[in-house]
Design brief:
about 30% strand, FAD/NAD(P)-binding domain, 2 domains, alpha+beta, binds flavin-adenine dinucleotide, D-Amino Acid Oxidase, Chain A, domain 2, about 450 residues
Length: about 450
């Protein structure tokens, strides 16, 4: 990399956000005759897709209770839909079914979908939900679910294939992607702006701006920028909750059963939507052992080699080892039993599927902010950070918004995610979902 002493725009991290930012910035520079992709360099310590993006389940949905998340997701789905072939996007839709406690939340999500023009359908009532799901899957049998949000947009994409699609688009625009270059620090100017990025292969002077998109390595960059490990959080009612950890980690538990993908199809033989079940009905294994009688949830989708998905994540206590990534430490050993039981609870066809569970490394660590929502903001006068709090494979459109911000525009979609919200109390509303990302 000796030849690279400087670059106008430096993007750190070649995951979903870094690649999407680099590509959209290149397009914006070209279209506005301000430059080209050759003005952008992406620095990646390993290779594109080496972080969370490369292992994401790939679900794309807009089941967000928070207005700002929902509006942002609308813009992201538009990007997915703009080139499904390159992004390996499967627009099969998404179905969330939930218990009584989630009715009001899902109804309000659907009302917002109607307002913003996102195509979804809401079904309320135990018998009505059962009928809706049986029309899709005649062997549907989940209990305790009284509300169903059926998104007719969204679906899923194949993780590494979509990375390759973005890499191809970056290369076509002339963006330079440099792998095996680790960013180790920043050289500050007296006004706090970044003069240069220090890397394992030398110093790169910053011409214009830096965009940091480090995925689960967010905390490392947070400390490199001298930001606090713990913060005071002001709630919307003005109460101050002091000394909260800025970053927390959760282990996302995911797995797969190996079946012919055609085994999981809709009644008419079509591709099934991604399914998400939350219920408080007791969960039993197929041989009658009680797994839990508390609220539980799962999600699953048809994959290339079977059915893949996960369940609620578990918090990680203590230090987290992110290299090599993923780290699946402390995953509940009972996860395969639980997840397979949950598939069978939902659809009779999955009865006995525990024997088909693929014993492989799956899932990984996600890093979450103090309120579990992203920070999209300038952290220095010329350094923009995309710290997505593990929401973000689906957020392919964030990079497009960031590109506009870097070129001096305001983004009303990104504004609600500024760091300042923790001090001002402009926090996002919290839903009744057991997941930290809904
Ligand atoms: C198991 C799992 C399943 C998930 N499923 C979904 C899902 O279904 N849908 C969804 O929307 N989201 C999902 N997520 C969340 C999603 O994967 C992440 O939010 C998203 O991929 C983050 O993208 P990113 O570009 O910010 O980070 P990453 O993809 O992690 O990219 C960051 C990159 O930065 C590089 N890097 C880090 N430090 C340095 C450094 N010092 N110098 C240079 N490069 C560096 C890393 O090598 C990495 O390639 C899932 C996450 C996990 C863990």
């Amino acid at each position: 990399m000796d030849h690279l002493a400087a670059a106008p725009y430096i993007v750190i991290g070649a995951g979903m956000h870094g690649l999407s930012t680099a590509y959209h910035l290149a397009v914006a520079l070209r279209e506005r005759s301000l430059g080209s992709g050759q003005d952008i360099v992406v620095l990646e310590k390993s290779e594109p897709g080496a972080g969370a993006t490369g292992i994401a389940c790939g679900v794309v949905r807009n089941n967000y209770f928070q207005p700002a998340m929902s509006e942002l997701m609308q813009a992201c789905v538009e990007v997915w839909e703009s080139d499904p072939a390159a992004y390996h996007y499967n627009p099969v839709g998404y179905v969330a079914v939930g218990p009584k406690a989630q009715e009001a939340d899902l109804v309000s999500v659907h009302e917002r979908h109607e307002r913003i023009g996102y195509r979804s359908e809401i079904v309320v009532g135990e018998a009505e939900v059962d009928a809706h799901m049986k029309a899709l899957f005649p062997d549907w049998r989940a209990k305790g679910v009284t509300v169903c949000l059926h998104e007719h947009q969204g679906g899923f994409a194949f993780n590494l294939e979509s990375v390759r699609g973005l890499v191809g688009k970056c290369e076509q625009e002339g963006v330079r992607l440099l792998g095996e270059v680790e960013v180790t620090g920043f050289e500050d100017r007296p006004d706090g702006s970044i003069a240069a990025v220090e890397t394992s292969r030398g110093r790169v002077a910053v011409g214009e701006q830096v965009v940091v998109a480090p995925g689960p390595w967010a905390q490392r960059f947070w400390s490199l920028l001298g930001l606090p490990d713990r913060i005071d959080v002001t709630t919307p009612t003005g109460e101050v909750v002091s000394d909260q950890p800025m970053w927390r980690y959760w282990n996302l538990q995911e797995g797969e059963i190996q079946v012919d993908p055609g085994f999981f199809a809709t009644a008419d033989g079509g591709a099934p939507p991604v399914i998400h079940v939350d219920t408080d009905a007791p969960l039993y294994t197929d041989d009658g052992r009680l797994v839990t009688d508390e609220l539980w949830g799962n999600y699953f989708k048809r994959d290339r080699h079977g059915v893949q998905g996960g369940a609620a994540p578990i918090p990680v206590d203590g230090d987290v080892e992110l290299d090599p990534y993923p780290s699946t430490t402390d995953v509940d050993p009972g996860f395969p039993d639980m997840w397979c039981a949950s598939l069978s609870h939902a659809l009779k066809r999955f009865e006995g599927c525990r024997a088909l569970y693929k014993d492989a490394r799956s899932g990984g660590v996600g890093s979450f902010t103090a309120d579990n929502f992203p920070i999209f903001d300038y952290l220095r006068p010329n350094l923009y950070a995309i710290l997505d709090s593990n929401h973000g494979y689906k957020m392919i459109g964030v990079g497009k918004e960031v590109a506009n911000v870097v070129l001096g525009e305001h983004s009303s979609l990104l504004f609600p995610f500024r760091y300042e919200r923790f001090a001002t109390g402009d926090l996002h509303p919290v839903s009744n979902s057991p997941y930290p990302w809904s």
